[in-house]
Write a structure and sequence with these properties.
By secondary structure, the protein is an alpha/beta fold. Helices cover 49% and strands 11% of the residues. It has helices at residues 3-16, 27-35, 42-62, 76-90, 102-108, 125-157, 161-172, 192-205, 233-249, 281-286, 330-343, 358-371, 387-401, 423-433, 435-443, 453-469, 475-489, 496-499, 502-513, and strands at residues 68-73, 96-100, 181-184, 209-213, 229-230, 256-261, 268-269, 291-293, 306-308, 311-315, 323-324, 348-351, 377-380, 445-450. The strands form three sheets. An eight-stranded parallel sheet has the order 12-6-4-3-2-1-14-13. Helix 6 (125-157) packs parallel to helix 8 (192-205).
Amino acid sequence: MTHFQDTVAAIEALKGQTGGTWDAINPEHVARMRAQNIFTTGLQIAQYTADIMRRDMAEYDADANVYTQSLGVWHGFIGQQKLISIKKHLQSTNKRYLYLSGWMVAALRSEFGPLPDQSMHEKTAVPALIEELYTFLRQADARELDLLFTQLDDARRAGDDTATDFIQSQIDNFETHVVPIIADIDAGFGNPEATYLLAKKMIEAGACAIQIENQVSDEKQCGHQDGKVTVPHEDFIAKINAVRYAFLELGIDNGIIVARTDSLGAGLTQKLAVSHEPGDLGDQYNSFLDTEDVDDIQLSTGDVVIERDGKLVRPKRLASNLYQFRAGTGEDRVVLDCITSLQHGADLLWIETEKPHVEQIASMVDRIREAVPNAKLVYNNSPSFNWTLSFRKQAYEALVAAGEDVSDYNFDNLMSAEYDGTELGRLADEKIRTFQRDGSQRAGIFHHLITLPTYHTAALSTDNLAKGYFGDEGMLTYVRDVQREEIRQGIATVKHQNMAGSDIGDNHKEYFAGDAALKAGGAENTMNQFS
């Protein structure tokens, strides 16, 4: 017996114990409703998706070709449509996740209106969005199964046993839309206790993977902007511990922590690290500071001095009361950050870079793997990069190295559309196409994500629609570019009433009231025009 049939039998037996008071209850309808709602709590989702991620991490360790991917989302409907599209085009959600971007929460979900990525948005918006995403993914399950149940009823009425068995097998082997979400907790929104409390809310909402960065919480900047300020390792480890305690308290023993380092582009620290002996973490952190020998300067009131290699030195302090690191130390600090995080409880790494360059990433990962051989990355395939320009520069350099003639290309104007069909343009686009594969094989990237894709796609599609609709084309723009394409490409949203749950509601009305149900999906429903 399948799980579905077991449920029917169990409800039938339970119904038999009620002395006839449940005569109106149809056990198969109950089994259908349970199948459409297999996750009743966020913690169930967190455990289910943590198991998926751990399995995928192990498979990647065995074969770097089986990396994972995700797209950033800022609304439950957007996440739902991504997974519906994945199942439609690729038939499986395997190795495909969602990413919850703090940037998009700040820009699109704050009650203050659009905000920069500086942890100024309400931190409760993050667990609220996780819960919203999983509500929409669960509704996608309910909708798809509801369509199958309707097909099953039609096949039964037609007496088509072959169709009945086939549809029943689809129901029994149904793959849920619920997938792991890697959720951004920024720099923890405060001290470790604040990080722990927020992490709990995120996990309770369903998060199995939490990404945290080593910036100062109240000075946090977007990873691709200037002015980033990092914290000493002991401070960051405390927050990693806080997240781990949250997972363990809630029983998600295999929850995933993604430790992000912004040190490559961060030249500042808010405070000096505490050091107890030469060579400890505090001493290593302070060793990167830009300093002046005390013998060479006049000390002033309030100056701070530290001992380095037997001499007293003064760390250079800016007017902002921040200390600066020596130029050119970014990669060394990244390597130390990553090794330290993995040795103190993190599971995955995130190195924020200024450009998408496989060899740059690999050069750091190679050093990290000398200490932690199975080190793996989550990597931001960011829209903050000018991908075309970056890879055309890489293609230009490759052509020069190969002795090719590059005199037809203006290196200062490589974005020009005139290069789109050239050897340089094709070579650059091929490097972009294979970037994720190459990065996973060469640079240890387990998970590739785009942080802000739907921010840009929403703006682009809205611009195109507004340009035509409010111009001479009027309604033709919408019909030709939206609705007609929805119909021809089989986009489910063309039947938006069904997508919003109208047919599920009709079936429930019939379960509850039988022939007396007043249903919305009758002959006068205009959605029938799209059948």
